[in-house]
Amino acid sequence: MVVVMDADEESTGDAENIEEEVTAEEPIHDEVVDAVEIHEEEVKDDDDDCDGLVSDIVSIIEFLDQINGYRKTQQKECFNLVRRLKILIPFLEEIRGFDSPSCRHFVKRLRKVILAAKKLLETCSNGSKIYMALDSETMMTRFHSIYEKLNRVLVKAPFDELTISEDVKEEIDALCKQLKKAKRRTDTQDIELAVDMMVVFSKTDPRNADSAIIERLAKKLELQTIEDLKTETIAIKSLIQDKGGLNIETKQHIIELLNKFKKLQGLEATDILYQPVINKAFTKSTSLILPHEFLCPITLEIMLDPVIIATGQTYEKESIQKWFDAGHKTCPKTRQELDHLSLAPNYALKNLIMQWCEKNNFKIPEKEASPHSENEQKDEVSLLVEALSSSHLEEQRRSVKQMRLLARENPENRVLIANAGAIPLLVQLLSYPDSGIQENAVTTLLNLSIDEVNKKLISNEGAIPNIIEILQNGNREARENSAAALFSLSMLDENKVTIGLSNGIPPLVDLLQHGTLRGKKDALTALFNLSLNSANKGRAIDAGIVQPLLNLLKDRNLGMIDEALSILLLLASHPEGRQAIGQLSFIETLVEFIRQGTPKNKECATSVLLELGSNNSSFILAALQFGVYEYLVEITTSGTNRAQRKANALIQLISKSEQI
């Protein structure tokens, strides 16, 4: 999955400024405007009087002003919409008493738009947070369809018949200007969100389980508590039922990310498409109503060995112990920091559970025996860590190879290995004069870096320069895994800077140009992430990144066209980048992708051309020579949502450049 971002779009932070300069307005087509449904039962009958309709509209706006808790991804736009609707209230109060046919018709049309706005705002307050982040383009289209509809209604208001004050008339005129000039914008947080979503939804990249990214997403989407996740699960079920048109891939993306968030909190992953979220032990006893306090808040299973932690909350012993072993020192339910990690048996609750089961003839499920005890795993890791310092080469080789496999298996192993003190020893082995040990050491660190705490430990040990050294001089697999390790570590912003200052970008560019297919992909993802840092854009350009990216565009069989265009879009926001990529042959290549590329190719290529043309009209004139205009017109009706938006903006830019 590739996310193309707008390097040129920045938040103005000035929602009140209606005189804002607009370089390329993006009109909303009537087909899109009419996509917002209004339920028939919500529309008043024809015999309603004008005053009644006005009162209804005012009540709806006042109700909307009280809604709180908008989803973070749409929060700013929700507040902007409500603020604009509130401007209508003085106007509505002044038209009370007018009841002509034209006034009644106007108020009815206005009410329909207000109802559509109400439905959208309620969705942004109660809908699935994951879906609205995943499909933010569609959500923005809905907002702009509301703005377009509202503007069309207001400009046709029968002002000649209505006796309203000049002040109110000026407010409505100003509102129409705001609605007309409303633009979609992607701020820095949205860019970070887009990058994180790209990584976690990747099917081929093992780093899609990176806990740092998942935790950052959970924080941005406010899905950090068990209660949040329960509410999100209900919202997703409702979404799937209401939106039968959701494709399987989108549903799977949403459910997979939900399960990653659940795993982060120690909850069991479920397939909510086919399974109700109920206790597994009751799948054959659906008539029983299980007391809520009998369920472990982590697993949602009936507790067999309930224990009390420092906050007074009760959990299944095995589940809470796993939570602690994973490095958490908080209560999963309350998120409070714990004074201690001691567990006290809850005998009273255990007796109540047993009595209830006996009374209801319910058989408590038996625990599955674990093949390896936790102590055995700790002992195994300790022995491996000890062997890393062995004076025998073969023992070191065996140890680091086994540790590489353990670190790949699960999050618990990554925590165990780090807690046993393996990271400093592994960093030392990066400079060991043995290619096999180097390869396994850097790959083990790659696997360990999936854990956010480990990322910091690895970088604090000074591993980055050694990883860059292996990237330059190691064997093929070691170089590829070094690039992957740099990508993982660069999820921390301070590491983006460190990698750039440590001269890590030139060897990544070399791998991009001369590496295997896998090596190119590893280098490409690392360079994309590093280029989010402004200083690194210049370093990448100086390292010669442009030519390898252009080479990737020439070979469609490599399957990296969208990724290459995504980096070129970032570079196009840099003056030196525009100079390096703005050659005539590249403009022709962009136009060719706009003409006959895949839907995603067209979207990416249009975005790059818009970025270039927004800064220099000569790029627009060059594209016109290759017939771009007619291809853009076609995209405005048949492209992806984002492609349509970019094509419309580019057409308006062309109109300004050529006065078409």
From TrEMBL:
This is RING-type E3 ubiquitin transferase. Pathway: Protein modification; protein ubiquitination. PROSITE patterns: ARM_REPEAT, U_BOX. InterPro entries: ARM_PUB, Armadillo, PUB12-19-like_N, RING-Ubox_PUB, Ubox_domain. Functions as an E3 ubiquitin ligase. Pfam families: ARM_PUB, PUB10_N, U-box. Transmembrane segments: none annotated. ARM repeats lie at residues 421-463, 462-504, 503-545. The keyword Repeat applies. Residues 1-24 are annotated as: Disordered. GO terms for biological process: protein ubiquitination. Its EC number is 2.3.2.27. It comes from Arabidopsis suecica.
